[in-house]
Structure formats: structure tokens, C-alpha cells
Amino acid sequence: MPVPEPLGHEKLYNRCDPAEFSFESTAELDEKVTISGQDRAWQAIRFSVGMKQDGFNLFALGPSGTGKQTAIEHYLREKAPDEPVPDDWCYVYNFETPRQPKAITLPAGKACEFSRDMNGLLEALFTIIPAAFSSEEYQEQEKTIKERFEERQGGAIEELEKKASENNIALIRTPSGFAFAPLRKGEVLNSEAFMRLKQGERERIEKQIETLKEALQSIMVQIPKWQRESQEKLKELNRQVATFAVKPLFEELKETHREHTAVLDYLDTAEKDVVENFIRFLEKEPQPQEVPTGMADIRSSGKSRLFNRYRVNVVIDNSKNGGAPVISEDKPSSQNLVGDIEHLAQMGTLITDFTLIKPGALHRANGGYLILDARRLLQEPLAYEALKKAIRTRQIRIESLAQLYGMASTVSLDPEPIPLDVKIVLTGERRLYYLLSAYDPDFSELFKVAADFDDDMERTAENRRSYANFMATIARRENLRHLDRSAVARIIEYGSQLAGDSSKLSTHLQSVTDLIHESDYHAGENGRELIVQEDVERAIEARRFRAGRIPGKIREAFLQNTILIDTQNEKTGQINGLSVYILGDQAFGKPSRITARIKMGKGEVIDIEREVEMGGPIHSKGVMILSGYLGSLYGREQPLSLSATLVFEQSYSGVEGDSASSAELYALLSAVSGVPLRQSFAVTGSVNQYGEVQAIGGVNEKIEGFFDLCRERGLTGTQGVLIPASNVRNLMLREDVVRAAAEGAFSIYPVTHIDEGVEILTGRPAGSLREDGTYPDDTIHGLAVARLRTMAEKQKAFNEPDR
Amino acid sequence: MPFNPEEISIRRITVALDCSPHSRASLEAAAVIAGALHAELSGIFVEDINLIRVAELPFSEEIHLHTARSEHLDPERVMRLLRLQSRQALALLTETAERFGIPHSFRTIRGPVPAEIIAAALEGDLLALGRTGRTLTCRKGLGTTAKQAVREAKTHLLIAHSGFQPARPLLVLYDRSKAARLALRTSAGIAGGRGALHVLLLAGNEREAKTMREEAESVAAGAKRGIEFHVIPWTDSEMLSQCIRMIGPGLLVLGDEMEAIGKETVHRLIDRLAYPVLLVKTPA
Asked: What number of other Cβ atoms are within 10 A of residue B43's Cβ?
């Protein structure tokens, strides 16, 4: 099998040529952001927005920082102006059931007009009603009614008094009523004089008084009735006067809003209520005083609250909207979504009325689009449930959480629900989407469209141009320096580095934005007008340095031989594997020594990591594959009479992944064949049962991690890394690695099969199976077979000592 | 004519107290006038002899107004109540007089209420009493005592109505008669520097009104504030009542024996108008 050549430096880094750009700097680019390369997601978005049926809401899934929300918002804001402006909504007092304020819909801009009209009406009522009731005509009529009652009552008593007087009997006023007494010469008879009267006279007087008493009692029984009649008359008069006074005002208002039936109905009931409560308008309204927010003015509260019933609480005013609303709610709590009923503190109690109904994001977005972050939504107690309920029932019902959970026992309001017609867009990570799909049966009913934003996109000319446009937008929007084309090219290369693929660009635009910010800082430090490539390089280097404490410490441990890594000699059964560590947003590679030892046994490969439960399942699987490979390679003609142990030396934490399986196999082959491996190489790549080397992740970090150690120890020209050939497209290596490779100081070998790697690592061919089923003697496999045969014979002799 | 307070012969005001709302108003009005004229207050409370006698009668029964129920009238309870009212009247007088800084005295008399009050009034220069006494029913006009006092009292009379407002203007009717001049001079003295003085000139024509006004200005020269004149040609109680209502005075001052309007009209005005009235009696 031919041994692959080291990769040329041009394969190690996919450069972006600044000359391909027609502009000198991003200042020349227009502002339009066209993030291409997300065709699948865009098609889903367009489909969801176009579908008017229930449940076709959108979940935009993808890694955070990819600009999903910004892009969707931008798209919807471009589309929304062409859509009809939704109606206004307002809440008014329900005169029949005050606990259930009525919701009224009006064409856009009309709700505020209606509210202004009602305020004007209220103001006018304070003038009109007192004027009507202080008019001479009313006073006269009122007086007449009152006098009629007084005359009736007083007249009846006076008549009785007169009748009594004719019989020499006086009507005396007592503390609680009346009493009758005999008179003589204008004075009441005292008891002695009375007793001196003849028996017959006394009896006559007593009888007369008894008759008068009964007459008085019958008058008194009539008095409440007369009083009621008088009050009824007064009430009727008041009703007539109030109706006459307020009718023209209401008629005028009805004429203005004649096309809106709900308003007309409301005005009818309001008019009746004003007439019934006319007396309130006769009291002087106290001047409002400044009170702390959330507290009601004690002096005027009762009165003001009474008049609040004639006000209009405009919860949604679309007069300034030029189309469908696009709302993005940063804090999607239950109250912020479906609205809330606020309370005012008054004398230690909480009071509320319909004017304290506050709209939520659903109200504001009604007739348009509402964009929410799924993670934030799920973090808010009951918010997700409230949202689902609103979508399912197609109406917004304001429910106070405090009421629902019995935390507030005051009587609150139950406002009439408002019909809901909104397209909800949730944005979130893929995991959230999959979790919701799996565990929430409602989710797939309510969010039928998924817009799956990719982590990366093809590095085509069009997308490179889009990247440049994006940079221009960021520079303008965030008031940063523009980037010259060399800086643009470098950031595009950075995009590929982020994607971990030389033919792709990362869609994690937040990282790109951060890099532009940092580059701008360095451009400022250098006193430049534009950001140039050097500034971008410095920003990347500075970022690496800031995050380099732990890799630095590890490297220091290598150099001090605290962690043993050989980069120079040849050793049997020992190899440098490579692993990647991810800490925060920084990833770095680190070489690890892997050793293999063999002894006589039954053909098993013992993974020490697994034995001590430090190896993950994928790693264990990789090691088992090695057993399969070894068995198929050497165990076809004879039993494998060995037992091999594999270990990651100086590993103090778990090992996971199968990217070290090829390295482990090389170490095993070396141990079995007894041929030493060159320690100047490090190896990465997984292997299958046929010995084919397969792709792994983090190839760039792994190469750079080993390169850094070699550079520190001094590059000899013999050092290098063996990587799977299928990972060559992922190479976007650092400039210093590329330079070293170009100078021949460091080599990167693309390996497709274990046999290729063995030859590079040992300098001896792996050996091909001959027709007779044997390998040439001086090859790795030949030596291995010979060694295994010897071991098998020894074992056989050991097991059958008597023969 | 320069203003001379000595000409206003009110040095002692007798206030009939029964703790009814009108009576309280009469005390308040009397205190205002006493303050203005440096007079003293003499409060009297009359224990109604008729009520005591009724209570002592063997068959006496009280018919309750709001229930029409009848109950034996206990003389002891009546006496206790009268004593309580007397104490309340004294307390009210003391509080009011001290508030205005006016010398005051108080006594309780037993007898027929109107007669005792009219008799007690002779000891002072002005009798102040409420339009009606304690009454549980609606009474449109004057009460028995007030009516009798209007007819028979020899002193000036102040008949107050609940809701007395000293800040409102004083209104005096003027017709050039001796009684009207005295009423005007008294009004000017009471008004002092406090409130506005309105004079209703009862003149048949413009010329007469002019003369009348000049005369009135001269009579009321002591008034420290401007005088507002109104002229009306009518003298019947109906029209006069309407005009007076339009001005809405805090105190209406009338002469007892005016030339333009007769005694009966004056009495009718007092009976009909629900304003405090000061009836100035012309000395014989």
C-alpha cells in the first residue's frame, strides 16, 4: 500500500483572496442583510407566514447566536407593512356586571378618538348637569314637590291641632312625638285641676283625647307614604332634568360613532347610568394631588373611580402602525403575554377597575406577528401554558396569577376575552425543540412548522459576499470602523475556522460580530480609519491568549516532563494520541500518551479506562472494534493467544470518543510486532473493523495542540500528525502551522488505512496478505503473526505439559 | 351723617336656646352681631310648663312620630330631659361666647315658652330665636314662639335659620321711613368691615330712587365697605321675596314699621323667606 505524502501547505488552510472583492472597504456596501445559505429555514418561514390556518406557528431552531431572531424580525418587518392594519381594542365599564369589563373593537385609530370623546363628555357633564340642577326652573319644581309634602304633612297635623283646639285640647310637642292635653284659658290643665273636674267631664276629655290620638296615629301612618310619593316625584323630576341635560351630548357622540354598534350600545347604557347617578356630578370634584405611584389618592379616589366608569381604556392603539404589528417580547412572562390587571393600594387594601387593565404582547401583536425566545418563555412560570391556551382558544383572556393561585383574595376583574389572530414565532436551540416535541403533546399541534437554521453554510462566492454585507451592516449599526477587504477576507477565513470546515462558513454571526468589535478596538489602538487584516489577526491572537491559561499550563507540564510526552524517540507499544478539550467557548488540543502491553492470553484487549469506569461508551466501542480488527487480521489461521492492555497514560479524568482508536491500534500493532513507533508523530482518527481510518472532530485544534508542544521543544522536521484523509477538508490551521508545513518543519499526513499509518510510524511496510495466507516476514503484520504464533505455541505447550 | 355706634341701642342680646338646629343658628348669628356691636349675650332656656303638666296628667300618652305607637309619658323622664337640654344649652352658649370673646350669662325659666321668652326679652335690646323650635315634622313657616314674638315682642328681633352664613351679604330694605333708617344704620354697624351691604331701595321711580340712594348713603356712612344698591318698584310680598332670593343674603334686615310696605307684608316676608331676619323695632 503506497504511503501518503505529507499535505501541501495549500491544503492546510483555505485562503480567501481579498482581490475577489470589488470593493475597497465595507463602507461601499449597501445595508441590506441577505443571509443566504439557509434555504431550508427560509422556505419554512415563508410557508408558516403564508399559512393562515390554526397551528401553523413557527419554531425557528438552531444554535444561539446565529441571528435567527434578527433575521426573522427583519423579514417580517419588511413584509408587515403590506398587510392590513389590525383594529384597535379598548375596555369599557360593564354597567350590568361591573366585574366583567367589556371589550370593544374599533377601526385603527378610532379607539383613541372614542376615548377622547368620552373624556370630553365627562368634562361637559360636570358643567351641564350642575347647570341644569341649579336652574331656577328646577329649583322651583323641586321646591314645589318638597313644599307639597310639607304642606300635606303639616296641614294634616295643623288641621288636627285646630280640631283639638276647638275642644279645648292642645297638641303638645314632646321629645319623641306628640301628646294631647286639656286646655283652660290657653294653658294646659295641671293634674290637680284636672282631678278637680267632674267625673263626667274628665271622661269626656279622655274620650276626646283618645279619638284625637287615633286620628293623629292614622295621619302618622300616612306620612311615610306621602314621603315616598314625594320622593318618587322628585326622582322623576331629577330623571327628566338629567335626561334632558345629557341627551344632546350623548346624541352627538352617537352620531360620531354611528357605524360602531358596540359603541352605540355602550353609549346607551352609559347615558342611563349618568342619569341615575346625576347627583355625583353635582359634587365638586377635588383637585388631583400627586401621590406615590401605585397608591390611590385617598381624597379623590372614591369619586374619581366612580367617574372612571365613563372612561375608555384603550389597550391597543394601531393608529401609528403602517401594517401588521411585529412584536418581540424580551420578557415573556405570563403577565407580559396575556396582560395584567393592576391594583392600587388604598388604605392598606388593593383596589382595581377596568382602567387598570394592561395589555400584553399578544394584544399588541394581535393581527400580526409575535416573536419570542423559547428558553425565556419556558423559564417564566406558567407563561408557556398561557401562550398555548391563548393560541388554542384563539382568544386572550387576562387572568391574574395571584388570583389563580389564591395569593390575593380580593375581588378582581374578569375582562371579556379578546379574539386572537396572531402568528407566533418561537426561536430556540434544537434541543428545546426536540424536547418540546417529545414531551409536550400540544406542541406539535400548535407549532407545526420548524425552521431549522443550519450551523454553517457553503463558502460560495455569494455567501462570501453576504458575509461582507453583514460586516458592513454591523459596522454601520454599531457605529464601528468599516473593514477593508483584507479584513473582510480574514473574517471570512475565521468563519470557516468557526465552522471547522474549509469549505463552509459559520452561521454563528454573534461570534463574527464579536470579532468585528474586537478588531475595531485594535484598529483604534493602531490609530487606523479602517479595520485591516492585521487588526483582525491581533484580535484573534488576543482572544486566544486570553483563553490560553489552561493550554499554557498543560504545555508547561509537558516541557517539565510532569506529563510524559515523547516527541523525539522511538518506542514499542507507545504512541501520542490527540484529544480535544472544550472549556467555555474555547477548544484546544492536547497530546496524550497511549501505551499497549501484551502478554499471553485468550485474545482479549483490555481497556483499562473501561475497567476503572473512566472510559465512555463510545471509547469502549472503539476499543472493541480493535479486537475485531485484530481477530480478523491475525486470528483466522490460529488462535490469538495474547492478552493486550491499553491505557491513556496520566489521564485523571474520563475519556470519551473514538478518535484515539487508530492510535490505540498502532500501539497494539507495535506491541504485538515488537517494532517501535516514531514518537515524533501524533495520531488521530477512528478506525473500523477493516482498518479504515475514519473522520473525527476538532482536527485543527488537535494538530495545533501537538504543533505547539513540538515548537516549544524545537521543530526537527521529523514531527507531524497523522489525520484521517476524510478530515483534510476540515483543515483551517493557524498561520504558524501552515508556515512550518510549507517549510517542511512539520508534516500532516492524510491516512485512509491503518496500514498506511503503520508504515509512516515505523518506517516499515505493514505487509500485504499473500495468496498463501501469509505476510512477508519483515513487515509489521509478518512480524506480528510470527510473534503470535510463538505465543500460541508457548501457550499450547504450557497447557499440555505432559505431551 | 357720621356713623355713631351709640345710636345703635343693642347692648344685650337675649338668646332663646332649645338646642334645635335653628336655635343653634340663632346663637351663632347673635354672637356675630354681639361681636360687631360689643353687646353681651344672655341665654335663656324655658322649661315648657305645658309639657310638664301633660306628663303629670294621669292619662298622658306620647304618640311617637316615626312609629305612631303611643306610650305613657313619664313626668320624671320629661324632667330629666329638660334638665339635660338646659345643660346642653348652657354648654353651647359658653362655647360660642368664648369663641367670639363675648360676655355672657345664662338662666333657666319655667313657664309657657312664648310668653316667658317675650318677657325675658324685655331685659335686653334684641331677642334672638330660631324660626322653629324642636319639631319632628316639617314646618314650612315660623313656629308658634317665633310667630308670637314677631307679633308681640317689644325689642328688636333676630329670627335665625339653620345654615346661617355670616360671610354672605347683609340686605336691608330701605324706604326713607324712620324704621328703615334705623334698620339701615343698624345694618351698617353690623356689617362693619366684614361683609358687603346690599340696600334694596323701594322706590316707585328713578327720581325717587336717586333721592333715596343719596339719603341711604348718608345714613349708612359708617359702613366701612362699599354699599350695593338695588332698586325695585314693587312692594308686594311675592315680588319682594323673589328679589331677596336673587340676592341670597346672609342676613335680611327689616324695619318693623316701614312706610312703603305694611306690617303685614313684613311679617309675611319673615314667615315666607328661609333667611335669617333681623327685625328692627321702632322705639315708641
From this structure: 25
